[in-house]
Amino acid sequence: MNRARPPRSLLARGDRVWVRTVVHDDLAGYQRAVRGSWDRIGAWNPVSAVDLEWHLGRQSTEHRTFLIHATEPTDEHDIVGKVNVSNVVRGRFQNGTMGYDAYDPYAGRGLFAEGLRLVVDLAFAGEGRGMNLHRVEANVRPGNTRSAGVLRSLGFRREGHVRSMLLLESGDEPAQWRDHDAYAVHRGEWPATPYAAHRPARMALLVDGIRGAGPAEPARLAAAVAAELGLPLFPRGLVPDEAIWGLLAASPVGGVVEGAWSPEAAASVHEGLERAGFDPAIVPRMSDDGRFDDDGTDAPAPVDASAPLQPGDVIRLALRVRAAFA
Ligand SMILES: CC(C)(COP(=O)(O)OP(=O)(O)OC[C@H]1O[C@@H](n2cnc3c(N)ncnc32)[C@H](O)[C@@H]1OP(=O)(O)O)[C@@H](O)C(=O)NCCC(=O)NCCS
To answer: Whole-prediction pTM value?
Structure first.
């Protein structure tokens, strides 16, 4: 088969490990490494002692396979781990996806994490020295705390949850489409702070039922929007008025406040939002006619208050809140 010449090797050295793109001499040690780690890895990733040969034949600037080697190896083999950086999309994305495994007897000793850091260095390094990527992502099944822990230890952020993402066997279970959490880091934040805390955007929405519950059912609407946005709900009646702003201030993600505010309460609402860390000019406030306070009279209301609550009402309102805090 007429294959393009493989790209030049990429190499990096650390204290306890060194990293290089795969070469033919790695195949025998890799087979020993995989055979010694079969059961542990098989719970999460498909394992094959011959897949490295397949990858070796496909090396290109858009598909790199890195092996992490121990500086002080055992007699058996020196392969600490394997990391594929593939599915590379260039153009305006410059993104690659990582897949990886660590091998016994090195797994669980911090060597893999040291090597993964070097691989990400190489993924971001410019043309000639590395892969010149802008963003690297890894997708991890929610139960795989070791894998997620390694990524968080390097400062990767969890960006979201992807349903039914990859068709994978798991131990003795047959292949199924499995949900994954998406983690990523981009070049501008690398080297990232280990265990960087997630800082979700804080959002708030006021749902005002002061003119009495119309067909839009403010309480139900507020609960549905809170669920859609993943925000806590502070409902009128359950939370005393004087506690609402303190609770909103304490919430790291903000919240949906369902209230009943008379026009005279405007100043205290303004002050409460400020105390909770929000700019009152930004926080959307919806009244029970389905309009926002800052809408011009011609702007369509996101919710038709004269009709029963529709699923689309919730989504339009949630999108409106997201846009306000974008
Ligand atoms: C995921 C895997 C590659 C990690 O390799 P490893 O050798 O266990 O990782 P390390 O020993 O290098 O771990 C390094 C860091 O991760 C952290 N970590 C490891 N396990 C963790 C856990 N269960 N919870 C939280 N953090 C954890 C460690 O605290 C350590 O950070 P620190 O040095 O800052 O303390 C390995 O467990 C593996 O091969 N798993 C099976 C296959 C797999 O899951 N592949 C990835 C699919 S997405």
So the answer is: 0.90
